[in-house]
Amino acid sequence: MKIRTLIVDDESLARDRLRSFLQTEPIVELVGECAAGPDAISAIRSLAPDLVFLDMQMPGCDGLTVIAQLPEDRRPAIVFATAHEKFAVDAFDLAAVDYLLKPFDRERCQQALRRVQLHLQLNGGRAAGPVAAAPAKADRITVKTDGRLVFLRPEEIVRVEAADNYVMLHLQDGRLMVRETMAAIETRLGPEQFVRINRSAIVQLDQIREVQPANHGDHTVVLRDGTRLPLSRSLRGRLDRFTPGAR
């Protein structure tokens, strides 16, 4: 299935540029365009897109207000596309899948689509199948904690653990508590550098030292710092691609 996509931007040139990027992506189906906030709310409700590329400042109401008008369980995947970096904290508070700063190029747009595809797959969305380009590693992870916006390199993150309505980021030089779901942070980290090993833990692949057998056919993941974590049987297949001889 294709990712049914809505473009929302009050600048016609910005819509034209984004449309030109998306029309070359086989997995994308463009279902409409809007130039104002109230029109976007109506279009999202009537068209039920999988994905919305959403500008931040528009006539009628801004992008944050558009999302706030939609029930959380009915919101599509959101990629904000804006010239204003100052809204990033609020965007990630609303669990945006990505945040594109204008002007962005085709490669950055494709990276956002890959994150959206993974997000939809992890959250029961309809879109599946390959996107046009091969997966790329995230170059920076942005998180909000204690009112601060923290920029992390992925290699700084050793593992992520669930903590009620938060996640704990275990870093090479400390820890950060972040109000975010495991599914959202897993999407943002991406499958090239990180792997979910059980319901409550995501680990950086380079931090895995070994996988040991445990009792009753279970396995334990041992990290380079000595941390031992259970490997879920249902998620064991995610490590199969690193097994010698696996295809």
In brief, what are we looking at here?
With 247 residues, the chain is of the alpha/beta class.
Give a description of the structure.
The longest helix is centred in the middle third of the chain and has 17 residues. The protein contains six helices and 15 strands. About 4% of the residues have low confidence. With 247 residues, it is α/β, with parallel strands linked by helices. The chain has two domains: 120 residues, Response regulator (Rossmann fold, 3-Layer(aba) Sandwich); 102 residues, LytTr DNA-binding domain (OB fold (Dihydrolipoamide Acetyltransferase, E2P)). 24% of the residues lie in helices and 32% in strands.
Our count of helices gives 6
Which CATH first-tier class of the largest domain would you pick?
Alpha Beta
The total domain count is: 2
Task: Predict the CATH topology of the largest domain.
Answer: Rossmann fold
Strand order of the largest sheet: 2-1-3-4-5
Helix and strand string, N-terminal first?
Answer: EHEHEHEHEHEEEEEHEEEEE
Biggest sheet record: 5 strands, parallel
The overall strand count is 15
Mean pLDDT, all residues: 84
Q: Mind telling me the C-alpha Rg?
A: 19 Å
